[in-house]
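Lecture notes, part 5. Sequence design as translation. It can be helpful to think of inverse folding as translation between two languages: the language of shapes and the language of residues. The source text, in structure tokens, appears below.
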């Protein structure tokens, strides 16, 4: 164990994240160009990895909120990577590939968290700690008082895990004038979060030079309580919701302001809430977890999503999975599936934009992604909804996912996990 910790201390602080620092300079912002060099040329063009491409033909200047029409408020020239190359500078490989030339296929298996070996569990939690406590020397996050005013932009340093929190926060807060966001309550919901998990997995692998890292999933149907809320996993909590001092997560400080309805993007360390809070089952309105029957009924729904593509639609797999279409049965639930799990924790996990502050978020969403994969197996002809004015801003099939670099469309991830270099193990614990 001591040798493992010493290895972590020797690892470089080269973390991938949002807003590459080369793209936050005055020159980059004034020229609207985000084409960082890779081995001496923009986007690795001399190595044939990519090119600095102009997106002028599809940009617009009619912005209400600068998260709209991502990322063309900030940049109109960005790296477009060739073949299996990926990353904001085309210096990485697409998900599912590795090697200097990105021509070696690479597949990992996400296990149920209780099925991890002791070595895998130790590595997972140590890598989480390292990602939370080491500042990136290459990347920044954006802070702003108002996402409709360019003059309030400021870039600050952050650790990889805090960047991860920020990305969800940035995407989950409502756009000005709509009450909708780009990652929830619409067809992009499961695919945005699929990309979100893949982003973190890949960046931890880069950070640790360990391409075996994966995010396990937590099958919350196997128990009637949170069986990972103990000091062997994510920490037990007391009556006030504070995590046990015996858990590493008792020292984690949340970032990002919980004022969910403002246009501010405020992710700093000196917030009023200075600890993760968790009181699983403590709210009598949400004191249960979804069942295996709920999962099976969700998978049986044939329609992926339907107009009006919001939280009110019925008989939509996406809306049932997300948890807004609630089953009417003896339980008298007020939310279901994905949403019910968030509400069940009655603490940090319950606040939508800032829920990622609690690392249980990722193992929860890994299981949500597994359910998505099982649904796609059961409905092989399903497609992403065609572009329509009824689909919220940022969630149309051809919209680019906010806030990812390089650009990737929502419809890209409507494919099987093996395409992106991973699969799910059966949960036979």
């Amino acid at each position: 164990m001591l040798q493992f910790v010493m290895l972590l201390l020797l690892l470089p602080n080269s973390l991938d994240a949002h807003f590459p620092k080369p793209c936050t300079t005055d020159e980059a912002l004034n020229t609207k160009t985000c084409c960082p060099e890779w081995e001496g040329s923009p986007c690795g063009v001399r190595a044939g990895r990519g090119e600095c491409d102009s997106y002028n033909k599809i940009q617009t200047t009619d912005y209400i909120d600068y998260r709209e029409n991502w990322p063309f408020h900030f940049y109109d020239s960005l790296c477009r990577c060739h073949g299996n190359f990926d990353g904001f500078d085309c210096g990485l490989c697409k998900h599912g590939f590795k090697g200097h030339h990105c021509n070696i296929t690479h597949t990992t298996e996400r296990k149920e968290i209780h099925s991890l070996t002791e070595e895998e569990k130790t590595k997972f939690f140590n890598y989480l700690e390292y990602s939370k406590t080491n500042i990136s020397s290459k990347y920044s996050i954006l802070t702003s008082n108002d996402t409709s005013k360019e003059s309030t932009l400021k870039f600050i340093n952050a650790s990889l895990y805090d960047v991860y929190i920020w990305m969800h926060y940035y995407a989950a807060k409502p756009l000005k004038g709509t009450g909708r966001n780009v990652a929830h309550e619409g067809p992009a919901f499961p695919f945005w979060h699929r990309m979100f998990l893949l982003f973190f997995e890949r960046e931890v692998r880069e950070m640790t030079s360990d391409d075996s890292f994966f995010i396990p999933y937590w099958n919350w149907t196997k128990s009637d309580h949170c069986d990972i809320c103990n000091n062997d996993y994510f920490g037990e909590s007391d009556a006030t919701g504070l995590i046990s001092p015996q858990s590493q997560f008792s020292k984690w400080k949340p970032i990002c302001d919980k004022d969910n309805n403002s246009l501010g993007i405020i992710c700093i360390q000196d917030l009023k809430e200075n600890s993760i809070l968790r009181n699983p089952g403590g709210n009598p309105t949400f004191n249960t977890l979804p069942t295996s029957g709920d999962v099976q009924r969700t998978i049986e729904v044939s329609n992926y999503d339907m107009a009006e593509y919001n939280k009110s639609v019925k008989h939509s797999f996406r809306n049932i999975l997300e948890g807004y279409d609630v089953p009417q049965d003896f339980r008298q639930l007020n939310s279901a599936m994905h949403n019910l799990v968030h509400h069940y924790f009655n603490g940090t996990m319950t606040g939508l934009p800032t829920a990622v502050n609690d690392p249980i978020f990722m193992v929860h969403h890994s299981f949500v992604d597994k359910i998505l994969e099982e649904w796609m197996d059961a409905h092989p002809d399903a497609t992403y909804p065609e572009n329509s004015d009824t689909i919220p801003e940022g969630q149309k099939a051809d919209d680019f996912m906010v806030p990812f670099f390089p650009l990737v469309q929502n419809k890209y991830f409507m494919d099987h996990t093996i395409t992106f270099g991973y699969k799910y193990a059966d949960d036979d614990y």
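The translated text above is only one of many valid answers, since several sequences can fold into similar shapes. The two ends are 25 Å apart (CA to CA).
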